[in-house]
Amino acid sequence: MDSNSLYYSLDLVASSGRVLTVEQRTALHTSLLILKKNYKFQRVMFWGKILGITRDYFIAQGRGEDEIKDQKYLYSLNCIDWLLLPFTTESMIEEVSKAAKGHFIGDPSFVYEQKIQGDREEAAEENKT
């Protein structure tokens, strides 16, 4: 959703049952305008809310002059303060997909433990006995 029409667009998706509070909507509207100005984005898109166990993440994308090459992704835990998401590589995606099993916690400092193949084999042997 483009930040320019965010307030009206959120009403259109409210029928899905996942809505933002009035406080979140107001904070988003203001903070995305500030984000656009501070980062000198041409456009800011609100991508949505990721539900976590302890906290939720709000995700936005900022676009510069070149909408394809000049993109930055940001997250917020409170709809006000935005932090850049790190640039990802294929190897990072592969590594995280192996490690990030289970429910999304919603804590940026949480370290997911990666299960190695040996642990799986031991667990399988224990289950057989």
UniProtKB/TrEMBL annotation:
Pfam families: Radial_spoke (PF04712). The keyword Isomerase does not apply. It is found in: Cell projection, Kinocilium; Cytoplasm, Cytoskeleton, Flagellum axoneme. Keywords: Cell projection, Cilium, Cilium biogenesis/degradation, Cytoplasm, Cytoskeleton, Flagellum. InterPro entries: Radial_spoke, RSP9. Belongs to the flagellar radial spoke RSP9 family. This is Radial spoke head protein 9 homolog. The gene is RSPH9.
